[in-house]
Design goal:
A hairpin with a 3-residue loop joins strand 3 and strand 4. The protein is an alpha/beta fold. The chain contains five helices and seven strands; from the N terminus they run E-E-H-E-E-H-E-H-E-H-E-H. The protein has a single domain, classed as Rossmann fold (3-Layer(aba) Sandwich), CATH 3.40.50. The radius of gyration is 16 Å and the shape is globular. Bound molecules: guanosine-5'-diphosphate and magnesium ion. The site of magnesium ion has 4 residues, from helix 1. The site of magnesium ion (MG) has 4 residues, from helix 1.
Length: 195
């Protein structure tokens, strides 16, 4: 998809605070610092639209990015980062859950996992939760440039095993630094959208 126009259209900080529209939405979720903002920027082709930071857990709130006036990417707060206080994590969990459970115009999710690590308990829980609620999803192994080709292939297997993925469930390696995996990810996202 060629993105001609992209803007931060809304932010949500509480349950019931979500914008009222019918635009198809794709949400992005994963642990803080997993590379969510970088991936969104890379997909959209903007350097700095979604806030990236090297300070984990800095992004707060749900951010709604409107693309070409007709599609919305939703950057969800990162979950389960050790350096973010339990209290802060607990504040976001119900809001993320409410968004995923109730959003009628949510067509799919991109679930990000750091390719270098085995999925955490939180990653596994999120994976199960999305599967149980039949939310179409693509799983992305981020920061793929940090591993050699063979190490990456090995890690892909580790992640697939740990998340207990079925063959037809997609796991794509991706690098925001090199743009590797960008095309395939766009294809998977487009496939989740209404035709
Ligand atoms: N090498 C490499 N670093 C990345 C990649 N994606 C993100 N990062 C770095 O990881 C850190 C967290 O990225 P960010 O996008 O802010 O993660 P978020 O908290 O999930 O939104 C930043 O320092 C990024 O520069 C990637 O594909 N490759
Ligand atoms: Mg972020």
């Amino acid at each position: 998809m060629k993105i001609k126009q992209a803007e931060l259209k809304a932010g949500a900080y509480n349950i019931g605070d979500f914008p009222d529209w019918d635009l198809p939405e794709i949400s992005f979720l994963g642990r803080s610092n997993v590379g969510k903002s970088s991936l969104i920027n890379n997909l959209i082709g903007r350097k700095n639209l979604a806030r990236t930071s090297s300070t984990p857990g800095k992004t707060r709130g749900l951010y709604f990015y409107l693309l070409n006036g007709k599609l919305c990417f939703v950057d969800l707060p990162g979950y389960g980062y050790a350096k973010v206080s339990k209290k802060e994590q607990q504040r976001w969990a119900p809001i993320i859950e409410e968004y995923l459970r109730s959003r009628g115009n949510l067509f799919g999710s991109v679930h990000l996992i750091d390719c270098r690590h085995e999925p955490s308990e939180n990653d596994q829980m999120m994976n199960e939760w999305l599967r149980m609620h039949s939310i179409p999803r693509v799983i992305v192994a981020t920061k793929a440039d940090k591993l050699s080709r063979s190490a990456l292939l090995r890690q892909i297997k580790v992640i697939r095993n740990s998340l207990d993925l079925f063959e037809e469930e997609t796991l794509l390696p991706f690098s925001a630094r090199t743009g590797n995996g960008r095309e395939q990810l766009w294809k998977s996202i487009t496939a989740m959208l209404p035709q």
